[in-house]
Amino acid sequence: MTNISDIEDHQFNHLFLHERMDNNKDKEEAYLIDLINNINDNTTDKEYKKLVFAMRKKHKVVPGVIILNYLYKKCIQNKTIKPNKHFEKFNIRNETRATSGITQITVLTSPRPNGQDFTCEHNCYYCPNEPAHEENNWTPQPRSYLFNEPAVRRANENKFDAAWQVWHRASALELCGLPVDKVELYILGGTWGSYPIDYRIEFVRDLYYAANTYYHDKTEQCSNMRPRLSLEEEIEINQTTDVRIIGLTMETRPDHVTADEIKLLRRMNCTRVQIGVQHLDYEILKKINRGCYYDDVKRGIYNLLNCGFKVEIHLMFDLPNASPDKDKALINQIFRIEENGEYNFADPNITFDEAKYYPFQSVDWTVTKQWEDKGEYLHYSHEDLIDVLIYAKSHTPPSIRLARVIRDIPVSYVYAGNNVPNLRQLLEEDMKKKNLVCKCIRCREVRNKKTDINNIIMNIREYDASGGHEYFISIESPDKEIIYGFCRLRLSPNMGMILTGGYSRDKSVSINKDEDVNLFPFLNNVAVVRELHVYGNMTPHKSKKNDSQANSPRESYQHRGFGKMLLKEAERIAVNNNYHTIAVISGVGVRKYYEKCGYALNNNYMMKDLDFYDDVDKAAWFISIILIIYCVGNAFFCMCYL
């Protein structure tokens, strides 16, 4: 049996390995080379697994996926072997992380941004505020987050440095065999708008810098790394670099969605905003000291949609003062069933694209935990919670993606409330027994399923939203059970306009009346594509249509023209509604894609003139007239001479 060294960090160029390594590297390399030499175009999944067992027996070593990928990269660098696509497509771990078409990386902001002693100026009673103590290495945590949550641990290990968080997480994903060239970044930690502006700009700058320099050699304390440039310069570089940021998501409150905040978000090329709604019942919100009510949510969503952002909301069930009936009433207030049997939005002021359904959990360092310690029990029964969550999932419209159904809080923190970490899986099993289904996007994603790619339909769902009209254009299977991709198009007479009102954070005064502000005049009378997404195993941006299948043993639905089909349909709808310009709120890393589709950069949006459609229509009309005249003349000529 091979001796095992102590756990230590191993670094090679841009990769960081946090695994046990065998002392006898020669055996592992021989195993790898032998494995690669026995794989060919015709090797199946089943044959590969048999081959792996045979190699383990032959070489007396059992290296896992991560160590094999690390050695593979190192051997290529040392020219011991050549790149082998067959090995790459089989040696994958956690493949589902890339089946949504992108690779997601989550980073957290500092608990002490530029020395500031808070990360959220509010005090919601259910929200943890973990102080410095021995178990977290005497480091306080960003508001709402706990030290032992996976992403939070990674942030602590990297001292909350934005670039190092990206480098280490991308390295871990690459060593799992996953592509990291199309990255969607999620920024968590406290309330984004509560952080100092200069800290926020520097943090986001460092995210782009991390992507732009990911493949640079980081040995010798990064002594060979280039200096960090300005935010705008790093964004410019990211358009054509190897690792591209195709989406950037921030987390804030609805009452923080102000004019200045939106301008800064767009300067950073933020494309999605997560906002905590939690509930719409006034008494429940008052009980938890939320300080953010229906009108704030209505205004925040209005402002985000009319600037083209994708909107993700958080809803919390089982809150203090709530009941199963009140939580079901919340769902009924937001969603309604239509004549075709599908659910849609009931309130045009509360619409969104993604949601997280979070059951309330009592944890340490919260006011609600103090209530529990005094003998108050704040939760309804677990059976009632299951019933409410099933009700919520089964009522969710097919245009919404349920990103999460429970929060990833380790059970050790949970004092009361849900303590079942795999609750979503159990819910789906329970729903299946009851012949109930969730029609949300996540439950219908094609992922790596084997399907008939030629048997698809284009479906269009519509709904009113914040004074405008939304089109959810999707490519699906005929039974609508599988979704391959979709496009969100917004047509609004108030595009580029936002509402200012409610609580002014700068002046600390109450503004009684909402007032329209023309924040982005260049979006006035412009149709806006808020999202374009194609699902399936993520295909690197350098791949061509013909070799997208070759890069994965699973089904890949990217680079098949679905995106262009959806975009053309959005343009057609815009023209039919008398729009002459269309815009896309595009991530930096996909700007080149839109350029190929005829779009050009304008004020950090990709925009396209649609007047050519009118020219095409006029040409078609002119040709039709000529053909009619020709046919009539030809018929008259024949009658005269017969």
TrEMBL record:
Matches recorded under Gene3D superfamilies: 3.40.630.30
PROSITE patterns linked to this entry: GNAT
Pfam families listed in its UniProt record: Acetyltransf_1, Radical_SAM, Radical_SAM_C
Cellular component aspect of the GO annotation: cytoplasm; elongator holoenzyme complex; nucleus
EC number: 2.3.1.311
GO molecular function, one term: tRNA uridine(34) acetyltransferase activity
Keywords per UniProt: 4Fe-4S, Acyltransferase, Iron, Iron-sulfur, Membrane, Metal-binding, RNA-binding, S-adenosyl-L-methionine, Transferase, Transmembrane, Transmembrane helix, tRNA processing, tRNA-binding
NCBIfam families in UniProt: ELP3
Family, as annotated: Belongs to the ELP3 family.
Protein name: tRNA carboxymethyluridine synthase
Species of provenance: viral metagenome
